[in-house]
Amino acid sequence: MTFMISEFGPLEQVASTLHSTVYKTVTTKPRIISLFILEQANLSDDFTVALKKTQPDEESPPHNSRHELHLLQRFQSRPGQSSNPNIVTLLDHFTQTIDLYETAQFIVMPWYCTDLTGYLKHHAKFIKRKRDTFNAYLMPGLSTQTANKSKSKPKYENQISESDSNAIVKGLSSALTFIHSQGIIHRDIKPSNIMFKSFEDPTPILIDFGISYDLQNPQYRHPDEKDPKNKFTDICTTIYKPLEVIFGLRGYGTEIDVWSLGIVMTLLYSSDLKSCIMGGENEEDEEDGSGFSGDIGLLFALISWFGKPTLQNWPEAKESTTFMNMFAGAGDQDEEQPEDSQFTMNLQKLIPRAGGHVRDIFKRMMVYQSTERITAKEMFELLK
């Protein structure tokens, strides 16, 4: 879909969800150009920008694009400049009446060339899959299905340097430290919300605050989650959900972002651009959940990698009726976590390309009890 908006060139749709559409376009607006120069963004030629279009009056919770705009304004140190280099910059915003009944909000941001998945693929080695050999003992339909699946999922060898991976984690921990200090829970940390200015610069940019929760300003909360102990749990994407969200503990805090970042690290430090949490599925499946059996499947995957949750290693769980029905029976005296040697072996599989220092940090991130989880600020200090 291509159309014109005053002071912008043709709009090229590059992403679309139920609640927003993102366009790539070229601006001729003097104010935005001056902000580009002020920030020395120079993210691409001809002042290319991204326009995020939403319809605030049509959104369903927890989506709230008016709150997202407020946050981006709040995150600015001055117009056109974010207070944190790892947070998306707000260049401009405006509303436009589309028809008699529809008013759209547009947020203008710098155009970033790729997200984390694209960045990793750019630095990866593509490995051509061998063709499946014919097996007369397999049913024809099954054999064809297997072959098609093999063709549809290319194989990569992760070749991003350890130093660049560490820089990405450090940048994201900086972004989380900043927003958490502002009382903001992002609630949707995942690869497609982590952007990069170029394929040569490992500085991550955190975007999309459309479902973020504000612990400091109740006026921006949805009426159904005014009480911070009663937040929505329809948040986070597929494998990036922590246990407290899976089990419906609505009093969660900023710790959920740290857990989600830990899962992102299983992709970043993987050997083949696949998070083992998905059981070998590719990174695209991790974004949309295809081929994954929902929260139940995720729960059992987390148990296999991080151990069984019990009231001993996760006291918060006593607030979840679902957890108490599932796990608080006779088996609750089982081992709290895998034995240390087993957990160390799991670490080697979870983040095989990470150094010992990062593995130590990761181990402190992936703790069921949120109050014992390392904070983003502690992570950032350790990664300096």
From TrEMBL:
Keywords: ATP-binding, Nucleotide-binding
Species in which this protein is naturally found: Wickerhamomyces pijperi
Pfam families: Pkinase
Organism classification: Eukaryota, Fungi, Dikarya, Ascomycota, Saccharomycotina
SMART domains, sorted: S_TKc
MF (Gene Ontology): ATP binding; protein serine/threonine kinase activity
GO biological process: positive regulation of biosynthetic process; regulation of mitotic cell cycle
Record-annotated Protein kinase domain positions: 8-384
InterPro entries per record: CDK, Kinase-like_dom_sf, Prot_kinase_dom, Ser/Thr_kinase_AS
One GO cellular component, as annotated: cyclin-dependent protein kinase holoenzyme complex
Family (UniProt): Belongs to the protein kinase superfamily. CMGC Ser/Thr protein kinase family. CDC2/CDKX subfamily.
Protein known as: Protein kinase domain-containing protein
